[in-house]
Amino acid sequence: MTVDLVLKNAKILLGQKIERAGIAVDSGYIVKIAKDVNLPAASDKIDVKEFLVLPGLIDVHIHLRDQELSYKEDFVSGTSAAANGGVTTVLDMPNNKPVTMDASSLRERMAAASEKLIVNAGFLSAFPSNVKEIPDIVKEGAKGFKLYMSEKIGGIDPSDDELITKALVETQKLNIPVCIHAEDKQLLEIIYEEKKKNKDATIDAFLHVHSQDAEVKAIERILNLAQKSKAKIHICHVSTSKGVELIEMAKKTELKVTCEVTPHHLLLTYENLKELGIIGLTKPPLRLKDDVRSLWTGLQKGVVDTIASDHAPHSLDEKKKTSFWQIPSGIAGLETMLPLMLTQVNKGLLSLPKLVETTSKRPRDVFGIRERGEIREGHIADLVAVDLKKEWTIDSSKFYSKAKFSPFDGWKVKGKPVKTFINGHLVMDNGEVFTDVKRGRIIR
Ligand code: DOR
Ligand code: ZN
Ligand code: ZN
């Protein structure tokens, strides 16, 4: 038997141990993991030079933009950024222009993306105004729903508990997860009006509006509604100690709740935000040292299921030119997530198995992504080879993302993705992404 590709001279994390082995790939699938001498003949051989090969990352929270927001990011630039960052599957959020919120907008978005994906992508939808349309959206291929509790995006006002419950009941019947941006709209608005009245347009004012209480209240509310509906809830970008605590308690009940943290909430605090200014603006905002500590504890204890980037690109121009309260917030994180987390591995703050669990296995399970997320015979060959010892400096001017700025600019990191394979094909080699052939697929 001659297979398409053999990766030889690799190190692979098998269980908790790193072993020397190679990987044989045929028709996009991993067909054999074995010592190099026991691998089948192959049309193509790649020497991985003793780098560590991990399952490609599954980033369950990113914003690909495109369509009418392609000046911020488009499908090619966003998925190239993913490939450069060792991310092989992304889940796209629905706050697009037009908003992804029904079967036709989802179909259009998928059609627009289909020939432009460098990595695999799944798509989330906002809730439609008529919850009876939810099954159609799922049939169209949505991998989940997203509810912004901070503002109305899609068809449902996030202050309307009754409508939210109805929508959650529909998702429960279909066993599909609902991602939650947990900031309470009413609470945000009360403080925002106060700040505006006092003409207070400062980073401190931003932090007062996007308070810890706003997150905590939203998590409390959604857990309560999830209890009534038995829906699967995934809390995005948890940022507060109390938030982690609430989720930990909920996990001890019959509630189906999972959650994610971002690298920026794990590694930065509001003190960084004050230095960074608009580049560090994100919702929910960077928090206090105590919160950061709780996120790490939650991660180690398994309360936190996944690490996701919340890659939220904007143009620097619009960030600079808009009046304070209109400044778009968000951090472009696809190209820094894995290097930052590998650095934590090198520092001994995160184990390699934990990194793999939270960036590929758990995301795969939470969102029901088939045949990916693990290096295993019979799985699709979405892989990333990393140079765990490489010391280098993050330089956002080299990003594939259109958002060429980052709060991590200039950070010295240790560990770098050096080769990314999508569906059995090499798409990134040493920082160069091959964009001529589009190897990514839409995940339904
Ligand atoms: O900072 C943020 N940026 N938070 C969000 O919830 C949305 C995101 C974006 O789309 O820019
Ligand atoms: Zn969000
Ligand atoms: Zn987001």
Descriptive account of the structure:
The chain has 444 residues and is α/β, with parallel strands linked by helices. Helix content is 33%, strand content 25%. It folds into two domains: 2-53 and 378-433, Urease, subunit C, domain 1; 56-367, TIM Barrel. Helix 7 packs parallel to helix 8 (241-251). The protein starts with a strand and ends with a strand. Residues 61, 63, 93, 310, 312 line the site of one zinc ion.
Nutshell version of this structure?
This protein has 444 residues and is α/β, with parallel strands linked by helices.
Keywords, please?
444 residues; alpha/beta; Urease, subunit C, domain 1; TIM Barrel; 2 domains; 9-stranded parallel sheet; 14 helices; 18 strands; 33% helix; globular; binds (4S)-2,6-dioxohexahydropyrimidine-4-carboxylic acid; binds zinc ion
CATH class of the largest domain: Alpha Beta
Q: Tell me, what's the shape?
A: globular
- Please bin the fraction of helical residues: 25-40%
Give me the Rg, rounded: 21 Å
Q: At CATH's second level, what is the architecture of the largest domain?
A: Alpha-Beta Barrel
The end-to-end span amounts to 32 Å
Average per-residue pLDDT, rounded, comes to 97
Tell me how many strands there are.
Answer: 18
Number of helices: 14
Would you spell out the secondary-structure blueprint of this structure?
Elements: E1 2-14, E2 17-26, E3 29-34, E4 41-47, E5 52-55, E6 57-62, H1 75-84, E7 87-92, H2 103-113, E8 120-126, H3 134-140, E9 144-148, H4 161-174, E10 178-181, H5 185-197, H6 203-209, H7 212-229, E11 232-235, H8 241-251, E12 256-261, H9 263-267, H10 270-276, H11 289-301, E13 306-307, H12 316-321, H13 337-346, H14 352-366, E14 383-393, E15 412-422, E16 425-429, E17 432-433, E18 442-443
Parallel strand pairs: 1-4, 1-5, 6-7, 7-8, 8-9, 8-18, 9-10, 10-11, 11-12, 12-13
Antiparallel strand pairs: 1-2, 2-3, 5-14, 14-15, 15-16, 16-17
The structure holds (4S)-2,6-dioxohexahydropyrimidine-4-carboxylic acid and zinc ion (ZN) (2 copies).
One zinc ion is lined by residues 61, 63, 93, 310, 312.
